[in-house]
Amino acid sequence: MRFRDRLAIRVDTFIQLTLNGLTLGSVYALIALGYSLVYGILKLLNFAHGDVFMVGTFIGFGALRLLGGSSSPVVPVWLLLTLMTLAAMGGCALLGVGIERFAYRPLRDAPRIAPLISALGVSFFIAYSMQLMFGADLKNYDTFSMDNGALYFKGFNIGSVRVDLIRIITIGAAFVMMILLWLLVTRTRLGKAMRATSHDREAAAMMGIDIDKVIVFAFVLGSALAGAAGVLFALRIPTYATIGFLIGLKGFTAAVIGGIGSIPGALAGGLVLGFAESYTQGYVSTRWSDLFVFLILILFLLFRPQGLLGKADIRKV
Amino acid sequence: MKRRGGMVLASAVTVAAALASTAGASSTAAAQTQGISCGSTLKVAMVAPFTGGAGFLGNQQLSWAKYAVKTLAPKLGLKVSLVTGDTPVEQGPAIAQTLAQKFVSDKSVVAVIGPSTSGAVAASSQTYFAAGMSHISESATRTDLTKGATREGTPAFFRVVPGDYIQGPTDARFMISKGAKNVVLFDFQEPYSQGLSDAAAAVLKAKGVTVTRLSVSNTTTDYSSFVTKVPSDADFVFFPTQKPGDAQNFAQQLIEQGKKAKVFGGDGSNDPTQFKVPGSYVSNFAPDISGITTDKAIIAGWKNANPGQSLGSFGPPTYLAVQVALQAIKYACVAGHGQLKNRAAVWANVKKVKIPVSILGGPFRFSTKSNDPLNATFYIFQIQSDGSYKLVS
To answer: From chain A, which residues contact B within 8 Å (Cβ)?
Structure first.
């Protein structure tokens, strides 16, 4: 094989891995946002967040079935995907509210370890309840059967690398949602209340902000984004009841890398993690990718705990 | 006083536990020694995954087992009831061991159909063997179950389908016949796929085919990076997963990245409801029996009993396994003059069973060298544009 051909193959591989990382990273970013929103306001690591994501994948699957399945949907494919995403967002938002109301609110004034343990308990409760109700088998959206495979066959090429419609939808939808969230947090009164609560909860309460409402809203937003991430993820990759824990941990890692509590940080962290995972799988070893991901988490916690875009937590002593 | 009471209670619990464990052992021993009247209702247990990712397989097999018991037992003058044990693949093989304990403790269970999966056979064969219980699998294909220095199946284990030592080379020869020059072989870091890929690689390499080996954890669901590693000029990707949904996912991701290689799945991928990317291949240990003229009446009867269900290729070997078990029971009953001396009497007769025209086509008998069927073969299907499986080799 000539040098030029070998080079072309290497460039194509790099582009493909970058695309894989971008797709994965945009999903991680959506999950990381949920961690960041809740942590920013409650200083709580919501370890059940990965399972909310998993429930989102299942709600999307249920909505798909209700709407006729992938091969013979009763509505056009674009509407089908939209309805699946909205159903998952709505369902997960309700679940998030429930988790906050019953698992975290009663422990709001307890030592910080208590809600953390409660979060782990909720995580396992959700995962194994879902497994009991819906079985342990893979749930495949079978997007290949939608519109005769149009989601896979349509798209454009970069060199010889295909960017198909399903990736465009995944990446595009994730970025649109992140922009909407950014606008909501920076341009609305509710967003201002969230930022104020995040900055100083007691002072915000004294200024007349309804803290409970803000906290519930943070859970609604974070969980809805996890639901959307669930559907976008499961469009390409089958899901199962215990998938949430590992994906959730990766979302948490992305939040830490970006700077937990920071919305742009969640995006940056998600992308860094997606690229790191993809390049490790492509250039080092597929077996080492998770090890590498969590090594990054440890390194950030040791050497830059505030993450890429977070602020250092300086306290007066 | 309190301390003394606690010690008494602890001693009582220990004694009770010891008694309970010996009671289980003695009932097993009794089940081996007491005779059973052949006029009574005999139980045949069936062990397969009825729920979970491989639930489709177990349910297909169950429908055929029920049909075989219903139609064949009366012809042999036997009263047989089928009892079932579920072994979801996601729960690992340990559950097969628990079920084996349960079935060997039940005196009226005289033979077992299954376990369906190789891991479940490896986990439970010793227990059945110790109880003298023959277990006849309709789909466990791992080579080590009947062959090799580290044999996992006991002499009481039989199977009516060929082992993977036939499947791997058969698949490789088919790929070569299709002009394969470059093949990527996957394994899932477990014995089933490793054995198959090793066997296929040996044949491919011997014929000068370029072989790339990729190893992936069997919990992986996103294959994007693996697909990126598949060379653009690869002709086939040998993907012997035990989860058909994974084969579908992998084939989709190949298309997503514009790779032209065809996916070639093993018997574990053979499920038209889940794996349906056109052009892909699957191999299986049983043919599509709809083309076998001698099976017309059986198929019609089964369809009548299972309206709306598709024929599938996992079910018919179960019919054969039940047929072998019932025939062995009959031989044992005749030898015992209407009395089934023990389960070992059934086991002793399994290998004597010869079926002139089996449901899988042609005569059936066991090899004299192993507990595998004589002259069995694997069949290769290609997925058509309508999702159906067409026999191509």
So the answer is: 9, 13, 16-17, 20, 23-24, 135-138, 140, 142-145, 149, 152-153, 157, 160-162, 164, 166-167, 236-240, 243, 278, 281-282, 286-287, 289
